[in-house]
Please model this.
Amino acid sequence: MKRGETMSLDGEKKKITRAVDGVAGDMLDINRRIFDKPELCYQEKFARQALADYLSSNGFSVTTPAGWPPTSFIARHGKAKTPSVAILAEYDALPQIGHACGHSMIAAAGCGAATAIVKAAPGHAGSLLVIGTPAEEGGGGKIKMLAKGAFKGVDAAIMIHPSNKTRAVARMYAISHLTFEFRGKAAHAAAFPDKGVNALDAGVLFYNAVSALRQQLKAEARVHGIFTHGGDAPNIIPERVEMKFYVRALDYGYFREVERKVVECAHGSARAAGCKLKITKGEAEYAPFYPSYPMGRIFRENMKTLGIAEDSFSETEEIGSSDIGNLSQVLPTLHPEFRVGDKGEVNHSRDFLTAVVSKNGAAAMIAMTKAMALTVYDLLAKPALMAEVKKEFMAATRKGSGRR
Model:
């Protein structure tokens, strides 16, 4: 018996947890290999091939259908088309800091859970999928894959994400990426200041306007930005200033309202400084993430059975954004988190980078992989559970619940 397991499991589930232990070494190897070779969005050739090779060697049929991003894939196992449950794998890294969000672990856990199910229950019901989704870090891989029909026929999707906390259910913000370019007129800053139009003034006014706006926003919204170009030399009136901002909110309607207000701040600042304004919106807009609560209940029950404790965080505390939000708009989806280090070691930090390949991180990944594998098996093997998941999703979609 592994530490933390209560062993109040039926025969098939015991086999699955033991199978996860059996592939734990493979999972650690996958995590380390991808960790040691970080690749940015849509460049994940090594990671994609490593995962495809591993899944192929364990009985999965792996392809990248035409039109999908070349670093994506779909791995299939099972004779029946329904029910169809997808385990999602992410494997892109961050610029400069590598796998400080732990996507190498997500890939390893996805492969481990799927392979364990196949080893323990080769005749499992339905269709078990592992879908490789590149470019989560700003590239919107899942959005492009949705547009190409990658998730057609999938009944439910799940992945687990390393974090500074462990919880079964959480929400995530919608996010849009906005670039603001203020254009003025250059002139000698000492000799002819009256001949120039200062684009930096417009940028500073805009930044301060957004700072004032933040005081009046609901707690569920976030706006944050930086200057990416503020001028060329102190003795030249800045003729071009560029700024990048992210706008986030939980409710889709309020998200649009906040975005509109930020844009109005930019227009007002440009007018005040006498500048022209160009606004460019990023291609990949992430929708709010809405978890499947029935899937969350099943996952939580499996966590309890395995002796995995949840940290005391609400579902809206310490959250970010992801393209899995777009997926959650079209099918039941779950995105549990698992703590890989101390609570102070947060994603996108150097400390978190260390935790991703630590012993504590490995133990947490293996334990949570068991919970994911058991949850996927429940959805495949128990039609009543899948029916409940679908029913709740349809009801929530009809109600709206802040979705788009």
